[in-house]
Batch of 2 targets.
Target 1
Amino acid sequence: MKLQVALDRISLNEAINQATKLNGNVDIIEIGTSLIKDYGNMAIEKIASVASKSQILVDSKTIDEGAYEFKQAFSYGADIVTVMGAASYQTLTACYEVAQQYNKTMMIDLLNLNHEQIATIDNFSQAIYLIHHSVDANEELSAVTEISKFKTLHEHIQRIAIAGGIDYETTSDLSQQGVSEIVIVGSKIIKSKNVIDTTRKFMEVLNV
Amino acid sequence: MKLQVALDRISLNEAINQATKLNGNVDIIEIGTSLIKDYGNMAIEKIASVASKSQILVDSKTIDEGAYEFKQAFSYGADIVTVMGAASYQTLTACYEVAQQYNKTMMIDLLNLNHEQIATIDNFSQAIYLIHHSVDANEELSAVTEISKFKTLHEHIQRIAIAGGIDYETTSDLSQQGVSEIVIVGSKIIKSKNVIDTTRKFMEVLNV
């Protein structure tokens, strides 16, 4: 399982500092939507330039103009780019084709989709499907249970990422479950006292 | 009826040039999603600074983190900001509240929503609802017919904008119909030989 750390709602300078620290210490550094909308492609270019030892995910949340947005993000240094599952099937297809052309990866954000809707877009075999684990909405449903349920309903989907209130313990549980490819952590790492130490603790538990 | 002209998939310099020409000659200048994702808030700031005689619409296509994205766009100079109708109801509410606080406007992009879905979000009384007129999908359905049908199904919705393959004739028809508040034109103006002349022709037909 891979660890993805999200940089979001901070200044570009702070994001560059954090990315420099995280470089090579995490598998994937996420450039959050806020950094893209605040600073544009410059954010991708600058963060990618200080983080060559980790993969770069651009959380573009594309919902239209798929080919254009994916080409831009890949050409500025992204390895993985996100598209909304709520986008049209044509947009998803356009994004997927660009990802294949660039030999890069599309991540589909399943935010606000029900299982019937997910079933209509489950055939992008190389794409990663991102599940939002809502801590508020599913108080009694653990991330592990949510992944199990998802996997039962969508057996075609091979590549799964999970985000939302993920802590150290949940990461350990998900790692043992062995279904998810990527676990995404934000504030639990970025807002910790020592980002590198916290990252290492998360990384240790991933590879048990 | 107001005319909104969209700037999209061009360089920031070209967008600033076009905005300078359009300033005061159109009601609303749209900063397209591509300009936001390519250049960030700088695009809003620079375009707003050369276009003080028109309103500025930022096509943010927000789908999450509503309060953050709307605050940023308004603080950099937007008068109207877009949110996806496909966003969660909580996100729509957050965007609406920020728009009310700033005494500015939220536009809800109805892309990929069916009429049942639209009915669940029809109560933001001050918001503008954006209909995408798909020229491909509705070959036999004119923009005027589409607006009539929409108005029958969603009588609560007072403020309507329409985009998608809108030409001079369609604008004239929509103006006579008198239901839409805003008509959005992109390449028909921006890619014309003389942008100012073409804009004036569109503006004349609007106010008949």
Target 2
Amino acid sequence: MPQEYEIEVTEDDRKFSAAEGANLLEALQEQGYELPSLCGGLGLCGKCRVKVLAGKQPPTESDRELFSEEELERGMRLSCRVEVEDDLVLAIPSLAQGKSEEATAKSDLDEQIVDVEPDSGIKRVVLDLENPGRGDQRSDANRITDEFEGSYSFPLDIMEDLPEKLRENDYSVTVTIDDSSGSLLSVEGGSSQYESYGMAFDIGTTTVAGYGLDLETGRTLNVDSRENPQGKFGADVVSRIKYVRENEDGLDRMQSEIIRAINELVQGFVDSRNIERKDIYRATFVGNNIMLHLLTGVDPTHLDQAPYIPAFTDPQTFDAEELGVKINSGGKIVLLPSLAGYVGADVMAGVLQTGMHKSDELNLLVDIGTNGEMVLGNRDKMYAASTAAGPAFEGANIEQGMTARAGAISHVSIDDEGQLELEVIGDKRPIGLCGSGIVDTVGELIKAGLIGEKGGIVSEKSALPRPTINPLGNRLIDMEGEKAFWLHVDNNPVFVTQQDVREVQLAKGAIKAGIEILLEEFGATAEEIDRVYLAGAFGNYLRKENIMRIGVLPRVDLDKIVSVGNAAGQGGKLALINRGKMDEVNKIARDVEYVELSFRSDFTEKFMSAMSFPEAGE
Amino acid sequence: MPQEYEIEVTEDDRKFSAAEGANLLEALQEQGYELPSLCGGLGLCGKCRVKVLAGKQPPTESDRELFSEEELERGMRLSCRVEVEDDLVLAIPSLAQGKSEEATAKSDLDEQIVDVEPDSGIKRVVLDLENPGRGDQRSDANRITDEFEGSYSFPLDIMEDLPEKLRENDYSVTVTIDDSSGSLLSVEGGSSQYESYGMAFDIGTTTVAGYGLDLETGRTLNVDSRENPQGKFGADVVSRIKYVRENEDGLDRMQSEIIRAINELVQGFVDSRNIERKDIYRATFVGNNIMLHLLTGVDPTHLDQAPYIPAFTDPQTFDAEELGVKINSGGKIVLLPSLAGYVGADVMAGVLQTGMHKSDELNLLVDIGTNGEMVLGNRDKMYAASTAAGPAFEGANIEQGMTARAGAISHVSIDDEGQLELEVIGDKRPIGLCGSGIVDTVGELIKAGLIGEKGGIVSEKSALPRPTINPLGNRLIDMEGEKAFWLHVDNNPVFVTQQDVREVQLAKGAIKAGIEILLEEFGATAEEIDRVYLAGAFGNYLRKENIMRIGVLPRVDLDKIVSVGNAAGQGGKLALINRGKMDEVNKIARDVEYVELSFRSDFTEKFMSAMSFPEAGE
């Protein structure tokens, strides 16, 4: 029986015991502490941070990446990466309501400055105005607008309050103007120059992320997320469209669920920074186009049947109030542009974030989820396509697939001796495979010669190199007539089946064929690709060599592959804080040429051939 | 006892008797028929028209001015000008709900085409769109916007209905676009190209007029008016401001009253043309600036004390929905610009209508009501001022003053023999004087030598020319120590007192002094004025010679004086149907220089001296 250690949480003075080697995040969650974790315990998001006040807990590699030297010395650690090996006394910043802990959180987030000069067009200006008099009979409104070069219109509610507002503050006010709309957003008493905020939302089918930014500095002040509550109506876009079609109030319900989640994220930002909703003046939205339809209450049902027509692809601006998003009553909701029904604002925002639309080099952006979306091109021309890749890379449709959470095998490697090594999220007993685990398994089995070019798992141990001493042979099993390869055996064995390999082939074949068609359209070969951007979590945790080995991409040098994380969210932030970036993404959506793969007669042929594993032996 | 005639009304088959010589409008009103009359029975507005189907009723001069030959032959008459002298069978178009009578009304109003090419920026376009297909995957929104050169945004409610609207109409729709806002205003099934309307409102302190126009043709389709219901809170702007100051909900009540009246006028237009509220896409508003503040619910209380600061003077655009004006839900309310607190959008619209801002000649626009507003200038420079002229010219503050309605002496002339001739509205027994009556009386008395240069009514009959035979002498009376001149004697005598003359002097002195200061500012003399525009009812019914004789204006040739009627309302119509005109009036308000007379030390001196009657003998 393993050693037990004592964990003490200072916020509520509770103590509990945890086994040696236990994952600290999970131990805390088991005790009812609601620590957020966006990345599923991958040590990426930094949300599960704790402060180790006493006890031995050396920084992990993830800690070193996320925290400054000073923070490490203060004891900041990612609880998701901590294996308990001592009695610990902890502070948990995310639980704290006090100012001091907020300040701590702030210092971390202040670092997340988006790499562009802030120019949202929303400005706060402190005005100490001349009092009116015999020589100065200008109207209240002109007394303000004369301070600016452009002309600004007054919303009715601001005009109605204006005479009193000016006089009760003796003509000293802080004014918020929006250069994009040429409108005033607020007139407030006193001087409070720096209180202008915005939010960027990334509405994923599964997860809704909200970023709170300071429009003045461009700093990200808050990152938070929620499960997309529409999940209860269907896990993927197809089932949600079906729900809308089959339920009279389906669209309304979808919309109110997502708006509610957004308002929770707004409230979270407001609470975290002790600001007010009225101080949030703009919100940008990225997401796939179906999510944007559901957000705005626009029927998406024409998107699941040919010719797949969305109601809109252009950027949209609506009044926040009209949509029920509770920011400043004059605030605007800005949807970034989509390209087509299945190449959404998330992809356009990703292009923006990579900058490939301004590059002389040939870039490929691949965003893989249930659909795989890809954009190929350079400053002169760009092509984009979407494939129904199937959800294998998200761990779905896989016999023992699961999302990337504790217990999922996230990485697999097989050495030359045939020894298998597993990496399991949370260092727990493995209970299944997530997307990266399945990709690794297939990749390593190809390398080991256990999967053939057409995707078949070998049936003969003799096919192995040095078969007599290779332990892999024992892992090949026959499961009720289906070949399989086991990764872990205990009460709950984990294995990969022939059918799982087929799912991977379908997914990667669709993506690869799509890329090949884009290359043809562009008139280039794979060798000419200068850079491949992998967007989304996919790119963050997959091993490039196995991506290449299973052939998701045409053959390119591994060092051309770059992970860009949540490029969509980053693009949304860029468009939020910089008007030029908003113009840029609009131009991208106008310039990229959409290629509808499902109408291409050559797609099927390419798809069939792309399903094979050319790196495998015959 | 006078002869009685029988009047029959075909609309309800009722018959009643009326005395010989009775005014037909009044006789009808006494019987409960609600005939509208905007001009108070002056034969100007044409609202009280009836159709004489049987009976002898030759056309009057007013009839000849208002009706075409054909209409006269059909029996159209202004009931306010009819003296009953036969049995009559009548049709009353304003009572009729039927189509045929509407058509009659239409043919009259069709003539009222505003003299500018319609270019409101609001266009209806019938689109027979390509169905989507494999080669055409454009979004629903782009399928529409691609038909236009510019870019147009979709309001949320239109976007939400768009997918269904397109499909249920097989992609044949009529779209309304607004080039001013770059927004779509409607997407409707089928083809209905010509259903786009607008309204121009002239919000007077006393009367609210609403003009319904066809935006496509620029035609005025409907004219209607209401008493300004704010009247119950105070007859003039000063008492309304006082009401707002002294009642917590005063501003709200003022606003809801005027909005209700506007919505009644909207409904009247809708009913008269069998259109729908949604087909009215824009409304312009002119009025004095206090009326515009009360309309928008903006506190006007800083306008009645120096330095007289309004909340706004610039043009304003608000959502009709937000203001509660029930036109198209995406329609806009446009307030024309004011120049200052007391030189309102009505005056700016008047300048627009006269075109004086584009003239090489030196023009003077004078609009006289409770305040007198005046604008002097040409294309190079313009100056404007407002004086608290006092309400004498509206018949108020005059011992026996009254508004211009039946029984008011509207014109007075005295011939060389000293014979007096009165003109009474409705040809009734006189019961008082309206503004034009008092001006005429004072003017004629000056001419007859009965009022001296300083305004005193002569006390000596000997002052009269040919005193022994001049019957005017008998009209000079002493009323409890105050000199007076009687115009009519019966049970209810009508006379003009010395104090009345003083009121006229105050009013005309203020206006004349204001004009003199504007002339100084401009650097011109009165002789250099090329044209004087008299705006409002004032100009319509005053005799130029008496305006000049009492000295409301500096001395100019009579033929330089032009009455321009309701120039404010006309200007509002221009700005409604033509964007260039809206730009023009905005430029006018920016370019005209405002002169605050109450701050001018030289005003009092000029005012004192302008009160005299230089045309009178010493």
